[in-house]
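Hello again, I could really use a second opinion on something today. I've dropped the whole record in just underneath, so have a look.
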Amino acid sequence: MTVLIAGCGDLGTEAGLRFAAAGFSVLGWRRSAEKIPAPLTGQAADLTGSLPTIPADTEVVVISTAARERSEAAYRSAYVDGTANVLDALDRDGVHPRRILFVSSTAVYGDAGGGWLDEESPTAPASVTGAVIREAEDLLHARRPDAIVLRLAGIYGPGRTRLIDQVRAGTADPGRGQLTNRIHRDDAASAIVHLTTAVADPAPLYLGVDNEPVEKREVLRFLAAELGTELGPEEPSNSSRGGNRRLSNTRLLSTGFEFSYPTFREGYRAVLAGDGVRHG
């Protein structure tokens, strides 16, 4: 049985390695196919262009696209046009996968004044790019009502060390009360595999967030302590990116999913250890 990762970047590759470890044959589509590691099979493909033939035994399709830049046009091309193009290719080749999962974003939600949101909460994207991602979700469910949408919060992990780098450089903005929701890259990849292979009757929508929404300044204080450095004085936050909200992972946990990194503490300690940094 084949798993197709349409958009086999960092997250897609990590999910693909987990599918392969579970015994699947994994085909990854990426513009730069040479970047896809064995045992995955890489195939050069631009999701917005002409797509290769899809293997007839494809059981799972993961659409994990990314925009080339942060603009409405780039997001529409990657998310809306790319998703439609993958679905068209499936129809073209007469392939009917058992599971289709679309990697979405919690950017489709608005500000909740610090309150809790879940899969039943209304969406209210604060950005044009978030609205385009929401449009892609609707397109997918209109054509495949049984498809799974996984809305991921801020992904961190190997190679995603923006906050660590800011703390090291002394340029981190602790903000004032800004909430952050996040998930380790490896847990995001595991959730993709879990929802497409281990859940008998998946819901159409899940939030991919860890167990602890937290103020950004608490994360930064933790990192500063681990790195043995000091944060600058607290200032009003210049950023509202991420929205003032707490996102619930209750539905994901109800499927039996278990986090390797249930909070930012375990996750960032693993990142720092992998980076060769001593921490207490």
Residues 157 and 268 are 7 Å apart (CA to CA). Residues 276-280 have pLDDT under 50 and may be disordered. The helical segments are 10-21, 72-93, 128-143, 162-169, 185-197, 216-227, 250-254, 264-274. DSSP finds eight helices and 13 strands in the chain.
